[in-house]
Amino acid sequence: RAIGMGEQGRERVFVEDLSSNGTFVNGTKIGRGNRRELHHGDELQLAIWTAGSDIPYFYDKFYHPSARPMLTHTIVTSGAFATVKLALERRTGQLVAVKIMDKRTLYKRGQPNEQTDQETRILMALDHPCIVKIREVFNEEQFYMVLEFLQGGELFDRIKRKRCFSEAEARIIFLQLFHAIKYLHNRDITHRDLKPENILMVDNTSLRLKISDFGLAKMVSEETFLHTLCGTPSYVAPEVFNPNSQRAYTKAVDMWSCGVILYVCLSGQVPFGSIRGPPSLQEQIQQGLYSFDDPVWRDVSDTAKDLIEWLLATNPNERATVEQALSHPWM
Q: Which GO molecular function annotations are given, in alphabetical order (predicted)?
């Protein structure tokens, strides 16, 4: 390794190949005696693995035999339910996302139960092109869920960059979203925490997406779940705020969240928020107090607004189902 100073006094890091077997940067061989500047995110390898070989991607002769099948490193995100880390699968060399959950949050009194194990088996059996696939689950000192890794980040970040989508773009997004929700609802799975942060983009350019964190809200205690929603309630259906004795979750809560997300996608703004008060955010949601008065809505079609209004019906019995949403003229 050689370190020098750049024109503006910044450190520059180089790697020089002195090996007989070769050194690789991002899969390209440097060549003996050659030097290559390293940049943030470069992948340095001392060998290139081929799928046809009998040797796994990580040859663990130098590791303890009980070494885990994943090498975790960068934290992708951290929330109330879990921390998500980017990881490398030893056997295949593929990047995966590992969701790490505290058992005290996941299980009552920190102990597993049959219901949670059944929920896990149901989620692992899900197979839909617009739902993040659960590859493996490890129940150790913490609960580890290994998921496919998507390069495009969250829909939330895409909205921040674009500010809002055209109707044509939003229609592509919601065609995928509604079909994924239909798949879940047909299996009696309600997401309960749909928001742009839980919708992941497959890559950085297309509008292909997958829902994540589906069903996980059912695996945590009701108290923990409600506490989390109180932190970011903008996408929560009115009935979630009802007292315990009156609270009844149905699939309609997901459709309300879709209405809020569609509003955000087309305007770049949330329909409910403390900035719009008084009244309070909770009262705005429970009374359905939102509008299309902002100038951004002048160019949005009436059919799009009609779908939003149907999805944001405060009475869950009058709210559009996923089948009705898919059949709406705007779709």
A: ATP binding; protein kinase activity
